[in-house]
Design goal:
- The complex is a heterodimer of chains A (about 180) and B (about 290).
- Chain A is built from five helices and five strands.
- Chain A is α+β, with helices and mostly antiparallel strands and about 180 residues long.
- Chain A has one domain: Beta-grasp domain (Ubiquitin-like (UB roll)).
- Chain A has a five-stranded mixed β-sheet, sandwiched between helices.
- In chain A, strand 3 and strand 4 form a beta hairpin.
- The termini of chain A are far apart.
- Chain B has about 290 residues and is of the alpha+beta class.
- Chain B folds into three domains: about 50 residues, Uridine Diphospho-n-acetylenolpyruvylglucosamine Reductase, domain 2; about 120 residues, Uridine Diphospho-n-acetylenolpyruvylglucosamine Reductase, domain 3 (2-Layer Sandwich); about 110 residues, CO dehydrogenase flavoprotein, C-terminal domain (Enolase-like, domain 1).
- Chain B contains eleven helices and 14 strands.
- In chain B, helix 9 runs antiparallel to helix 10 and helix 10 packs antiparallel against helix 11.
- In chain B, about 55% of the residues are buried.
- Classes of the chains: A alpha+beta (about 180), B alpha+beta (about 290).
- At the A-B interface, strand 4 and helix 3 of A face strand 1, helix 2 and helix 5 of B.
- Bound molecules: flavin-adenine dinucleotide (FAD) and FE2/S2 (inorganic) cluster (FES) (2 copies).
- One FE2/S2 (inorganic) cluster binds next to loops of chain A.
Chain lengths: ~180, ~290
């Protein structure tokens, strides 16, 4: 006679706000945010490398701050605003092919800040989070921040160049508009 | 890897959280507190930890924040993140506690610091963790809630060994209190890779005489030379001699620290290497503390 030897896994019905949209998911409690994004919501832009916080490929914004989606259970993100690389938008309409790259993505392209591109979504979200808090970072500060993520291709200089350039352009754009616009 | 299955509980208030912990512990259900998850989730992904229940305290906003009480003691709620301390404005965290703010750059990286908490670091009790070293250096008190009520544990009695503290399995750390200001204190460290846990970390708190040049006492603490962060009385005795601040005094202090410790040898460094690191880092911490 067969016996049930294990209990059914604990599950959670969660409402997650991702890129401004509410999603309902029913997932095992042990599901990490990065797995929910990729497997349940189909948002495969966020990558997974190490699953222990070292590589930064899974970096997303949680309430505006860069965070490791592999070190966060999805249940912990309920009630917070999550933003992934899919939220970056340079205008030109909803989805590809009409949609344009965001200014930061454009800067990464211009400065050759990616080769294989595996690390890029993580670096983009890391940079977005940092620039939101510090719109005028020094080169030294940018170097310090990007040390959080691993890139095995570029050697980092071009990533630093791209972020520095994007920050400078954003500042120039705001000062042209003036503080009251 | 993926973590093993567990039952998730979201705490709604402090009493509910401690009641649940007491209950689960009484039934030997192996509960663990989940704060920022920056150590625990990594360990669960590795399956180094397989708790049957997680009690997520992340929504207990009463445990988040920084304030100074009427006696001038600085209180940090257990859920205050490393990044909140790093970005704390001077009104909240004044010159007397700037050493805490400045030490944060050594804790992992920005995306770790935005989620990882002060209380989680102290409860995790890594022997080289910056918060454990700072609490030891500055005689912090840890406020603990549990089935038995509320108690305050001095840092010197809180850390018991590798990843081991005086916290019971059914207890929550609610805040850490730094009782006095330390305007001439500094922490420095060496890690093999930027952002990693330190191989050796050193922290120094100097007492300066009114002339601003004579050192009349001080404290020296080291991480990475024993199973828990330690004070080094031999090095503190050098600072208590009443000498003028400067290379000779700081070198003697570093030398005394290196001779006093008996560090372990492991992959990150041999005992001799750690001893030399201890000497160099104590000298650096003295210089930085004096320059404040
Ligand atoms: C890549 C990387 C690099 C890192 N580098 C460093 C570093 O250089 N220095 C450093 O100090 N840390 C470092 N960390 C760890 C980080 O600081 C963690 O934030 C911290 O150790 C734990 O805090 P947490 O809030 O994430 O706790 P969690 O991971 O949620 O919990 C850690 C442990 O503490 C217990 N716990 C948590 N909160 C409480 C509470 N209030 N009461 C009782 N028990 C509690 C949990 O049950 C668990 O056992 C690093 C982490 C990563 C992933
Ligand atoms: S997958 Fe999250 S840090 Fe590597
Ligand atoms: S571009 Fe290949 S890892 Fe960064």
């Amino acid at each position: 006679m067969s016996q049930i030897t294990h209990e059914p896994p604990d599950r959670q019905l969660l409402t997650l706000e991702v890129n401004g949209e509410a999603h309902e998911v029913l997932v095992e409690s042990r599901r990490t945010l990065v797995d929910v994004l990729r497997h349940d919501l189909g948002l495969t832009g966020t990558h997974v490398g190490c699953e222990h916080g070292i590589c930064g490929a899974c970096t997303v914004l949680i309430d505006g701050a860069p965070a490791r989606a592999c070190l966060t259970f999805a249940a912990q993100a309920e009630g917070s605003a999550v933003e992934t690389v899919e939220s970056l938008d340079g205008g030109g309409g909803g989805s590809a092919p009409g949609r344009r790259l965001s200014d930061l993505q454009q800067a990464f392209t211009e400065h050759h800040a990616l080769q294989c591109g595996f690390c890029t979504p993580g670096f983009l979200m890391l940079a977005e989070g940092h620039l939101a808090e510090q719109p005028a970072p020094s080169r030294e500060e940018i170097r310090e921040v990007v040390a959080a993520n691993l890139c095995r291709c570029t050697g980092y200089q071009t990533i630093v160049d791209a972020i520095e350039d994007c920050a400078a352009r954003r500042r120039a754009a705001t000062s042209e508009e003036g503080p009251c616009n | 890897m993926k973590p093993a299955p567990f039952t998730y509980h979201r705490a709604r208030d402090l009493d509910g959280a401690t009641r649940l912990l007491v209950e689960l512990e009484a039934r030997e259900e192996d509960p663990k507190v989940l704060a920022g998850g920056q150590s625990l989730v990594a360990m669960m992904n590795f399956r180094l930890a397989r708790p049957a229940h997680l009690v997520d305290i992340g929504r207990l906003d009463c445990l988040r924040g920084i304030h100074t009480d009427a006696d001038g003691a600085l209180h940090l709620g257990a859920l205050t993140t490393h990044h909140q301390v790093e970005r704390a404005p001077a009104e909240l965290l004044g010159r007397g506690h700037a050493v805490l703010r400045d030490a944060m750059r050594w804790v992992g990286h920005l995306p770790i610091r935005t989620r990882g908490t002060v209380g989680g670091s102290l409860a995790h009790a890594d022997a080289t963790a910056e918060w454990c070293l700072l609490a030891t250096l500055l005689d912090a008190e840890l406020v603990v809630h549990g089935g038995g009520g509320r108690r305050r544990v001095p840092a010197a009695e809180f850390f018991l060994g590798y990843y081991t503290t005086a916290l019971g399995a059914d207890e929550l750390l609610t805040e850490v209190v730094f009782p006095r200001e330390a305007p001439h204190a500094a922490l420095t460290e060496f890690a093999q890779r930027h952002g990693d846990f330190a191989t050796v970390a050193a922290a120094v708190d100097l007492e300066l005489a009114a002339d601003g040049r004579t050192v009349c006492g001080g404290r020296v603490a080291l991480g990475g030379v024993a199973a828990l962060p330690v004070r080094v009385p031999e090095a503190e005795a050098v600072l208590a001699r009443g000498d003028t601040a400067g290379d000779a005094l700081f070198a003697a202090c570093g030398q005394a620290a290196a001779e006093a410790v008996d560090p372990p040898s492991d992959d990150a460094g041999s005992a001799g290497y750690r001893r030399r690191l201890a000497r160099t880092l104590v000298v650096q911490a003295c210089e930085e503390a004096f320059a404040r």
